[in-house]
From TrEMBL:
This is Basal-body rod modification protein FlgD. It comes from Puniceibacterium sediminis. It comes from the Bacteria. Residues 1-35 are annotated as: Disordered. Residues 17-35 have a biased composition (Polar residues).
């Protein structure tokens, strides 16, 4: 059975239906430790250079250019160590930010054209029909693809609730259901499209450059296919 209500803004009713911080702190500690190590190594290097100068053969002294090469080499190594530490800290921060973003998806209800797991609780839909349709119906299919319900949709309503009960008032079995909107004109079907439905995000993960979301029915979709989000009821 489909019921409709006036939907408050921002999908709030559908009714007429410190990871990043921790990463920064870790990077700061790591960089500070490396700086102290570099400072200690530089002092050791200067002492060794001084001893080398004091004990050189006076009849065959080391050319001053050799000292310059040693200083330049140490300076280059020092700079490379600092650069590596900076890149590592930035990588930690970016990784923490990505994890925070994933955590923000989990537990939310995503609006997408995808099946929804039904457990007896009403399912909120945002059906869309053809602009030139004079009638529309919501077609509900079970996981086997069989039609279990075909109900008239009021034109002009942007949100409806599928109560999950048949004409006798009996609740449909728990399972996965998909929703389609059939648009009619003069009694003929002119368009059939998957309906937008809210489904709980159970898992979010990164795959290459994409974020994949596992929905309540177990299917996975790309986050780019989500057209709306709301907090669970």
């Amino acid at each position: 059975m489909v019921t409709t209500q006036v939907a408050p803004p921002a999908y709030s009713g559908l009714a007429s239906e410190k990871t990043s911080t921790n990463a920064s702190a870790t990077g700061a500690v790591s960089t500070g430790t490396s700086n102290r190590e570099i400072s200690s190594d530089f002092e050791t290097f200067l002492r060794m250079l001084t001893v080398q100068m004091q004990n050189q053969d006076p009849l065959n002294p080391v050319d001053s250019s050799d000292y310059a090469v040693q200083l330049a080499t140490f300076s280059s190594v020092e700079q490379q160590v600092l650069t590596n530490d900076l890149l590592r800290a930035l990588g930690d921060q970016m990784g923490g930010g990505a994890l925070s973003q994933l955590a923000g998806w989990v537990g939310m209800e995503a609006l997408a054209r995808a099946p929804v797991a039904f457990d007896g609780s009403p399912i909120h839909l945002r059906p869309e029909h053809a602009s030139d349709a004079d009638a529309a119906k919501l077609v509900v299919r079970d996981s086997a693809g069989s039609v279990v319900s075909r109900e008239t949709l009021p034109l002009g309503e942007d949100s409806v609730i599928w109560a999950g009960v048949d004409a006798t008032g009996a609740t449909y079995p728990s399972g996965t259901y998909s929703f389609e909107v059939e648009s009619y004109q003069s009694g003929k079907v002119i368009e059939s499209t998957a309906a937008l439905a809210f489904s709980t995000v159970q898992e979010a993960r990164i795959s290459g450059e994409k974020i994949l979301l596992r929905l309540s029915d177990g299917s996975e979709i790309e986050s780019t296919l989500v057209t709306g989000m709301r907090a669970p009821d």
